[in-house]
Amino acid sequence: MFATIAASVSLQVLATIFALLKVALGTATLSIWGWLTIILVSSSVFIADELRKLVRSKVIR
Questions:
Q1: What is the pLDDT of residue 46?
Q2: Range of the domain at 39
Q3: Within its chain, how far is the Cα of 12 from the centroid?
């Protein structure tokens, strides 16, 4: 699962860094704050679900 996420993130980063891909895909360069915002927002669902599973496993025992 983590390999799939890493591959997806890598392709997204490449699409915003390389000039040829930027032109072909119509993307723009992002600042470090832009990347941090994207990472925090996109990972919030994953983190919330993992916390839900942790709490559920503790309650069931």
A1: 87
A2: 31-61
A3: 9
